Automatic annotation (TrEMBL):
This is FAD-dependent oxidoreductase. It is an enzyme of class 1 (oxidoreductase). The lineage of its organism: Bacteria, Pseudomonadati, Pseudomonadota, Alphaproteobacteria, Hyphomicrobiales. Its EC number is 1.-.-.-. InterPro entries: FAD-dep_OxRdtase, FAD/NAD-bd_sf. One of its GO terms (molecular function) is oxidoreductase activity. It comes from Mesorhizobium shangrilense. Residues 30-381 form the FAD dependent oxidoreductase domain. Coiled coil: none annotated. Keywords: Oxidoreductase.
Amino acid sequence: MSAPFSDPIWQRPHAAIALQPHVPAGKHIDVVVVGAGIMGLSTALHAARLGLAVRVLDAGDIGQGASGLNGGQVIPGLKYDPEWLLEHFGPERGEALVNFAASTADCVFDLIRDEQLAVPFVRNGWIQAAHTEVALKAAANRDRQWRARGADAKLLSKAEIAAVTGAHGYLGGWLDRRAGVIDPLAYTSELARVALASGVEIAARQKVVRLSRNAGNWRVEMEGGAEVQAKFVVVATNAYSDGLIPGLAETIVPLHSFQIATAPLSSNLAGAILPEGQAVSDSRRILVYYRKSADGRLVLGGRGRMALPTTPADWAHLERALLRLYPALSGVAIEKRWFGRVAMTPDHLPHIHEPEPGLLAAVGCQGRGVGLMTALGKRMAGYLSSGDVRQLPFPVSPIRPIPFHAFRQIGVATTIAWYRMLDALER
């Protein structure tokens, strides 16, 4: 892939972190984490602070995957609201899950504050923008449920959402003030820095190719023949999962999330577009999400083709969405284009698996990975340290590959095309 399509707007902090150039053998390790994204680094950081010896191995570099390439929206909650969670998980598990979901954004912003992370952020909320009456009713229902639980949230009228977004075409929406935006590459890099400072060993460009049990421990083998042994292995590869755990990759549908960034906005445009710095996701079937960056650009993302992009035309659907929302941006250049891979599960919930004792995996962020995986990593560390399954917010479930998974992408592409047409008819 050519450079213009692999260069996101996000920035690493100036302070460089020193990663292990190799994997030393023979040292006792309690936990090996496969994947140095938000989930893996959060797990490693909190496990180390609970007294465990931890090593993180990643096939690439820090922030090279979706953790460093996402839109940087920090949104609490799940795709489902409290009443649905209580109905489907029961009063005890459901209540614990609701409380966990409510806390995920706090986990991120508390970590930035407490660890003094060099991460640009704004915490003025997230708006779910409604473009139809049906979507507006759903927003009102969500508002009722979360405000009954004390959430700092508000239902927005047509005039109010026009004022806070500056965008065209919305009938109203829902503002959740618990949310915010960050620079995701800076955040992932800083998680690595504080994990290293807490005693975690991190080795980049070390692809794990085989896991096997050996006398009660896990043998972790890498390309090139290096290996380590550990009591626990946490596979935190999410949308980049391969055959390391049999069947895991077939439990998710990987999707490409494309993003564009404008040139820095003029003072007039900046004052009219998202003047308070909220993040926005709309209610369309193929939604778009957007926010302003720390240097004053408008960043907009949405689903893209599954083939690797080859020309700027692969982002044309996002440029059309941008001008539909903000016609005044017609003369503003698009300076950055990039994409990452995200994982969806058929039931739109995160899944935790433990196919064998001491081997754990978590997949399925559903577009809320920054807060969700930060919080889940802390809970995963608690489980590794204590063995208490109640530390885990979601039930541990068997690995169940999606039937006809090999044909799933064809179905997804067809569905996306159909939904785009329906969305266009609802303008």
